[in-house]
Design goal:
By secondary structure, this protein is mainly α. The chain is built from two helices and no strands.
Length: 80
């Protein structure tokens, strides 16, 4: 086979494969950048739920700390 014909065929095959790979990669990355509206709403709902749970956990921790302080106090023996 003539080297010139071989190089032209090689560049054609490699060029086509490279072009296809670049196009597919761009399609994949563009999909990741733009989440759907439904997905955005679900993420926002999860964030609100997480914030609510964090607030409830903080309040529960405050109540536990208060109860522990009450239990740690010595009992008033003068009242009995």
């Amino acid at each position: 086979m003539d080297p010139v014909v071989f190089l032209i065929a090689l560049f054609g095959v490699v060029g086509t494969a490279g072009y296809t790979i670049v196009k597919v990669a761009r399609l994949i990355t563009s999909r990741r950048e733009q989440p759907s509206a439904d997905m955005t709403e679900r993420i926002e709902a999860l964030e609100r739920g997480l914030e609510s749970l964090q607030q409830e956990q903080a309040e529960t921790q405050e109540r536990l700390d208060f109860a522990e302080r009450l239990l740690a106090k010595p009992k008033d023996r003068a009242a009995t």
